[in-house]
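ESCALATION

Customer reports they have been waiting on this structure for their group meeting. Please prioritize. Original submission:
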Amino acid sequence: MQTRRRTITLTTEVTKTASLKPNLTSAFKHTKSRMSTRTLVTKSGIRSTESNVLESQTSALSIENDITIASTSAKKAMRRTRKTVSPSTATIVTTTSTTGTTEVIKEKVAKTSEEQPWTKRPAHVPSYAKDALDHLCKMDPALAPLIAKHPYRIYTDHDTNYFRVLTRTILGQQIHWKAARSIIYKFVSYYFPDKVTVESLDSGDKTFPTPHQVLSTSMDQLRHCGLSERKASYVQDLAKHFVEGKITFTDKTMLQSMLDKDIASQLLCVRGIGPWTVDMFMMDSLERLDVLPTLDLGVRRGMEKHFAGEYKNGLWGTIVEDTEVDGNGVLVKKIKKKAGVKAKGKAKNGEMTCEDMERMAERWRPYRSIASWYMWRNAGPEGVIAAPI
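Update from on-call: job pushed to the front of the queue and completed.
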């Protein structure tokens, strides 16, 4: 009996389970359908997002292309503008695009080039000029065209504060004149704040520290004024020579009795002062007439150009190797080599050595300084090599 009841109960449960199967199948199909719909919606959103990204990239490429075109047009316009610029004027081109038309406006503006300070110095024709130029034309007739083209004039404002002259020369060594002017201003204004300006120094303001003031200034402070460590040591060494009396000339009267070699021997003991600085000092500040600056590039180039006709077989000029006096007491020069000899030290083809320059300039004595003045102007186109005096 009990076994029969259990059989009926199991049969009933199986029947109920079988009746639930269609419902479960329907629910599963409904869920699967909803999931498929959601998947389609998601895929559609992804495609939409990808489409937006592609549109953004296309827009960015379009903007970049526009920028490239505009940059190219600007460069072409700049090239066209450069072609129309003249030495004295500059052309400004303005392009406006309104109502579909392009209007080009050209305006000429005068160009102003900053003048080098020393070109403003007053100059004059010295009293000895006529005799000197006559002598040079007689001894070297090829100088006559240069002398006719460039009337000889020298500066009149020779500075007699020789410590100031030499210090400014050291500060200006191997740098552009604008940088030198800035350093000199910082150097002087450290000792005299609010008393000097760049313009006043350009105009000949003589305000300047004494050797004692410079010698008592620390290296760090001199570096703060814009001097390199090396130039700071040079300036202090120069001040030390003046303070200790190793440089004996302190005024123009004292210098008049000194020979060039005596002046050079005192100056060459100072660190930072070499033969070129000594030559410039004697030619400009002291107005010595028979100085030949063999280390100056401008003078060398001018001499190479001037004596080009005397350059043969890699040798410059004529060498006098021996001299003798005849029976009448007349000096006779024996020339053993007509084409010259190679000087010590190898120079490039066509370049003069210092020995070549000394030999070729013998004919200019005692006015080699004036002949050098003309060699600067003979060196090349005006402005290529500037004459320091």
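Sent to customer with the following note: The CA atoms of residues 191 and 209 lie 6 Å apart.
Escalation resolved.
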